[in-house]
Specification:
The protein has 119 residues and is mainly alpha-helical. It is built from five helices and no strands. The chain starts with 6 loop residues before the first helix and ends in a 10-residue tail after the last helix.
């Protein structure tokens, strides 16, 4: 059985679980996983919530665990790959922000900027 993961529909699924309260949904899935740690569906849903919450490394780990439980389910691999894509994008955005911040500091302290007046 395949479990579909789509970020736009996740909010609707969470609305039925805890009236859209993501922390409550996380607690619910944590409890479900505690009671049935081999349920790939619980793991996949928890991974989807973690992606929405931008906890990409945790989501990847959970998706990989679910893939071991149901290796025939290609959707789980797609979910993991989606989490990896978001993690890479976040890393690139963080690097760009760091580079932009350094450019601002460089201009502020006069590096790469000339105060000389042309004659």
């Amino acid at each position: 059985m395949a479990y579909h993961f789509a970020l736009p529909s996740l909010k609707m699924r969470l609305a039925s679980l805890g009236a859209g309260n993501i922390p409550l949904a996380i607690k619910g899935f944590e409890k479900a996983i505690e009671l049935d740690p081999t349920n790939a569906r619980y793991l996949s849903n928890m991974g989807a919530i973690l992606v929405v919450e931008k906890h990409y490394d945790e989501a990847i780990e959970i998706f990989e665990k679910s893939m071991k439980l149901q290796p025939e389910d290609g959707t789980l691999k797609k979910n993991r790959d989606t989490a990896k894509m978001f993690r890479r994008r976040q890393i690139m955005e963080d690097q760009l922000l760091t580079e932009d911040a350094q450019d601002v500091v460089d201009v502020f302290i006069g590096k790469n900027y000339t105060n000389e007046v042309s004659e």
